[in-house]
Amino acid sequence: MSRQALITGIGFITPIGNDRDAVTRNLREGRHGLARVEFLGNPALPVKVAGTVKDFTADSPDWFDWRYPARYDLPKSVLRAFSPHGLFALCAMEQALADANLSADALKDGGTGLYCASAGSSMMLHHHLRGLMMSRGKRCSPHGVNSSIAGTLNFNLAAHYGIRGAVGGFAAACASSSHALGCALDDIRLGRQQRMIVAGAEEATAESVLPFAAMHALSTDSDPDTASRPFDATRKGFVCAGGAVVLILEEAEFARRRGAPVYAELAGWGQAADGHSVTASHPEGLGLAMAVERSLADAGVQPAEIDYINAHATSTVAGDRSEALALRKVFTDAGARPRISSTKGLTGHSLSMAGVMEAAFCGLALKDGFMPGNAHLQTPDEACAGLDLPRATLDLPPRVVLSTSSGFGGSNVSLILRKIQEARH
Amino acid sequence: MIDPASRPSGSTPTAAGALRAFPAEIQDAYQRYATQGDLNAADTVVLAIVMDQIKHPSVKRTPGPAGDHSSLIGDLGLDSVSILDAVFTIEGVFCVQIPDTDLPGLATIGDLRTYLRRRLSPPSAT
Question: Residues of chain A whose C-beta is under 8 A from some C-beta in B?
Answer without folding.
Answer: 62, 64, 75-77, 80-81, 131, 134-136, 138-139, 141-143, 146
